């Protein structure tokens, strides 16, 4: 079974993945596995441009977890979508050193539920778990994912509403 952990940058995929690795799960990262698919660097946006279609096409599913913000396009059995309230996400991204444009782009994407909608277009509702990380610790989030993977808690989404931030 392969599970993907997706979400807007800053929602906590890497932090939670570290904990899941410590718990013994194999967790691969989109950023690592997509390195050989980098086409060029966009210095104005401080980001690498990756041939995402080719990365998805070539991806070999495995037993474990793949984390990254486009992993919901992979043929996963279950999907975890991490969420974060836009005002807190903004703080996390500023702290990380992102410029104003990149902060706004990601905060708007989160406020508009972009990743959740994309994931729901690709996967069945009962295979999807949405977790609001805003008031949780990374450990609590990792525990919830672990329980979901074991089948101890069902898929669930729809509790977040960031429309007040638009
Ligand atoms: N409940 C939580 N779950 C996950 N991360 C949290 C939580 N609460 C606070 N954080 C913090 O939020 C930050 C999220 O950054 P992180 O790099 O994990 O995000 P990401 O989604 O992997 O971003 P990217 O897509 O850019 O790699 C970390 O500093 C983490 O400690």
From TrEMBL:
Its EC number is 2.7.4.3. One of its GO terms (biological process) is ribosomal small subunit biogenesis. It comes from the Archaea. Residues 95-105 are annotated as: LID. It catalyses: ATP + H2O = ADP + phosphate + H(+); AMP + ATP = 2 ADP. Keywords: ATP-binding, Kinase, Nucleotide-binding, Ribosome biogenesis, rRNA processing, Transferase. GO terms for molecular function: AMP kinase activity; ATP binding; ATP hydrolysis activity. Pfam families: AAA_18. The keyword Repeat does not apply. ATP binds at residues 10, 12-14, 96, 136. Interacts with uS11. Not a structural component of 40S pre-ribosomes, but transiently interacts with them by binding to uS11. Broad-specificity nucleoside monophosphate (NMP) kinase that catalyzes the reversible transfer of the terminal phosphate group between nucleoside triphosphates and monophosphates. Has also ATPase activity. Involved in the late maturation steps of the 30S ribosomal particles, specifically 16S rRNA maturation. While NMP activity is not required for ribosome maturation, ATPase activity is. Associates transiently with small ribosomal subunit protein uS11. ATP hydrolysis breaks the interaction with uS11. Belongs to the adenylate kinase family. AK6 subfamily. This is Putative adenylate kinase. It comes from Methanomicrobium antiquum.
């Amino acid at each position: 079974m392969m599970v993907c952990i997706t979400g807007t940058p800053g929602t906590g995929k890497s932090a939670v993945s570290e904990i899941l690795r410590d718990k013994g799960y194999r967790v691969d990262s989109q950023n690592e596995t997509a390195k050989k698919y980098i086409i060029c660097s966009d210095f104005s946006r401080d980001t690498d441009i990756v041939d995402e279609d080719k990365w998805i096409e070539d991806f070999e599913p495995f037993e474990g977890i793949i984390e990254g913000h486009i992993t919901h396009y992979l043929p996963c059995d279950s999907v975890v979508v991490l969420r974060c309230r836009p005002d807190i996400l903004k703080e996390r991204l500023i702290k990380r050193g992102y410029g104003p444009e990149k902060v706004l782009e990601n905060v708007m994407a989160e406020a508009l539920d972009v990743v959740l909608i994309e994931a729901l277009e690709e996967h069945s509702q009962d295979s999807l778990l949405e977790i609001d990380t805003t008031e949780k610790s990374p450990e609590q989030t990792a525990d919830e994912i672990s329980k979901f993977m074991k089948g101890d808690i069902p898929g669930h989404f729809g509790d977040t509403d960031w429309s007040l931030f638009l």
